[in-house]
Amino acid sequence: MRLTLGPGGRVVIPADVRRCMGMKEGDTLIGAFDGTELEVFSLMEQVRRLQEITEKYHPEHVSLVDEFLRERRAMWGKED
């Protein structure tokens, strides 16, 4: 798609693209710039990407929250 840089550096994302991506006015967007390209995506997409990256660092069916709480309780002498 072809976009135009407007006043103040603003770029308008076409309505059909916003709808497709589930974006609405006021949403937080994430931008990634690698020196030559700018990628824009939703905050929820960033969360999904981060979950995908961290998935490989913990075993399936293990709650990282439960592990964290267990460690903290042990640290404070409150093991369940």
What does this structure look like?
With 80 residues, this protein is an alpha+beta fold. It has three helices and two strands. A two-stranded antiparallel ribbon has the order 1-2. Strand 1 (29-33) and strand 2 form a beta hairpin. It is elongated.
> Helix share of residues?
40-55%
Contiguous uncertain segments of 5+ residues: none
Return Rg in Å. Answer: 20 Å
- What's the story with the biggest beta sheet? 2 strands, antiparallel
H/E series: HEEHH
Q: Please count the helical segments.
A: 3
**What's the average pLDDT?**
88
Structural class: alpha+beta
Distance between the termini: 57 Å
Strand content: 5-15%
Q: How are the strands ordered across the major sheet?
A: 1-2
- Which term fits the overall shape? elongated
How many β-strand stretches?
2
Chain-wise SSE layout:
Elements: H1 15-21, E1 29-33, E2 38-42, H2 43-55, H3 64-75
Antiparallel strand pairs: 1-2
